[in-house]
Amino acid sequence: MAAEDTSDPSGTRSDGAVVEVDPSVFRSVLGHLPTGVTVVACEAGGRPLGLTVGSFFSVSLDPPLVGFCVSRTSSTWSVMAGAGAFGVSVLAEDQHETSGRFASRVEDKFAGISWEPAPVTGSPLIHQAVAHLDCELHDVFPAGDHDVVIGRVLALEVHRADVGALVFARGGYHRHQPLD
Q1: How many other C-beta atoms are found inside a 10 Å radius of the C-beta of residue 116?
Q2: HSE (CB half, 13 Å, CA atoms) of 171?
Q3: What is the average pLDDT across 22-31?
Q4: Domains in the chain, start-ordered, CATH in brackets?
Q5: Which of 18-22, 31-35, 108-112, 134-138 bottoms out in mean pLDDT, i.e. has the lowest?
Q6: Is the dihedral of CA 125, 60, 77, 7 positive or negative?
Q7: Gap between the Cα atoms of 126 and 136, Å rounded
Q8: Which residues contact 41 (CB under 8 A, 6 or more apart)?
Q9: Tens of pLDDT along 89-147?
Q10: Is pTM beyond 0.90 here?
């Protein structure tokens, strides 16, 4: 049985107690949960834009929806949000440098990156990724200091079933390997 949620968005419980969680402890504890690494990208202003996302998830089968979380302070997302569509590249275990590039603040993250337009929206899809999803923007919800972005999947495909996906946990990259 789940405990009753007695907090409100301000961090004050209904009994008046203030709840404070140290952000570094929060990050450390949740860093033990591995996450897949993706690059979410679109075309805006005639050029490709993208960012690394470690919070990509399935939302619904009918309709086919996916989601991810992005910081509201992201200057890249502030431009991408107006595009109305995005492509998702599920990075392969050998694409940790690509992940780092798209997580950085370099001006042209696509410089030297091989990609092709998604089949429906034309959003950039990075070559050699494990899989790709082509999405239209469905909804955006505020959630604390992040936005939860929901996309409707228009096309998707696995490209490299023979390699594992890139995983991030405990402050570093790992490879996904199924248990025997």
Answers
A1: 12
A2: 4
A3: 76
A4: 37-175 (2.30.110.10)
A5: 31-35
A6: negative
A7: 17
A8: 48, 49, 50, 51, 80, 86, 87, 88, 89, 115, 123, 124, 125, 126
A9: 999 999 999 999 999 989 899 999 999 999 999 999 999 999 999 999 999 999 989 99
A10: no
The Cα–Cα gap between 53 and 129 comes to 14
Residues 6 or more apart whose Cβ sits within 8 Å of residue 84: 136, 137
Question: Strand 65-71 vs strand 124-126: parallel, antiparallel, or unpaired?
Answer: unpaired
Describe the chain by its helix, strand, coil percentages, rounded to 5. 15, 45, 40
Other CB atoms closer than 10 Å to residue 121's CB: what's the count?
A: 22
> Which single residue is written with the structure tokens 């996302």?
53
Position 126 scores a pLDDT of 98
Taking alpha carbons only, the member of 167, 169, 179 closest to residue 94 is 167
Question: Which residues are within 8 A (CB) of 66 and not within 5 positions of it... i.e. 6 or more apart?
Answer: 56, 57, 58, 59, 88, 133, 135, 150, 151, 153
Amino acid making up residue 95: Q
pLDDT attached to residue 133: 98
